Amino acid sequence: MAGVFIISDNIYSPVATTTAENFMLLKKNVSGVQLHDKKTFSDTPFYASLFNDSVSFPEDNKGGYTKFEQLLIASITDALKGSGINPADPETLLIISSTKGNISLLETDPDDPFLKNRIALPGSAKKVANHFGFTEQPVVTSNACISGLLGIVMGKRLIESGRYKNVVVAGADIISKFVLSGFQAFQAISSEPCKPFDLNRNGITLGEAAATVILSSGKRSSKDIQVMGGAVSNDANHISAPSRTGAELAYIITTALKDSNLEADDIDLISAHGTATIYNDEMEAKAISQAGLGNVPVNSLKGYYGHTLGAAGLVESIISTRSLNENIILPTRGFGTLGVDAPVNITKTILNTPLHNCLKTASGFGGCNAAVVFSKQHNEQ
User: Fold this and answer.
1) How far apart are CA 129 and CA 13, in angstroms?
2) Model confidence over 201-241: pLDDT tens digits?
3) Domains recognised in the chain with CATH numbers
């Protein structure tokens, strides 16, 4: 089997609108997180990574697309450029990953059958697919914060099954009063920019973004990163609280490594979920340690992008693939002093070191867990 490779990608975020620009700015410690005073979202100011209100998308006022759909279209358009992928090819599939989709329409539109259709994720997926001329019915992955990674795992498996040669995996979420107030009700929003794994962390920072990876059977260039393996699970621990032991995520990490034919010692970088809540970071640190990865450099990108929900797994996977190709590990913005009990190696500063394999993890509401392994080692002579 030739393997499944990422042949093109895009990150469309408040930081920048291409992957190359995003990575360049992150290396300069630029973050999209700012203090916002938006009364339509919250009675009190809050930190988040949001698009400017005046931002314009390529499909503004065309086809009746919502902001969520415009974000997806903008990201997919950039990823398709130069990829050689024809969306109309019956061997090419579109997967859309999101947690909330058009849920913000509940705040602005009348409650009628049209609204119910517009807030349904399959409706948005079909609208985006039709825009590009995909002939295959799009697939939706919506499983809390692992949605983006789940899309990658599903795309890989579909290609390996022989049903498709190419899978376009795109994810997006936008922040609205509905989304923000939900996390505020949990008392999970940080009063300052989030501090993943830090002793003084006190919650998450939200963000909005879109991201796209194009998976293909076989590499197109020497810089294409291989999706080595992946695994997903649901431990049914609690509707919102993560496991206190980390055993379930640890199991998924070891399963992903086994699927990749790799050992713990082969991993050079871990891109953690790292939400900066008290319990998630503690659970994730325990899982990493239990999986025998306690000495591997770990970073969280939430300090740059905030938690972008359904897009997070894709955004952070793409940055990780850039790290592999450039042999650069980005620091965990906001981290200062280790604030978890398990021994983990959280990055404080940018590191230049040879990299071959990266593990990306994610966990979410309901006890869902995901892990994917990316590699460039098979691209080298």
Assistant:
1) 21
2) 999 999 999 999 999 998 888 899 999 999 999 988 888 88
3) 4-217 (3.40.47.10), 225-379 (3.40.47.10)
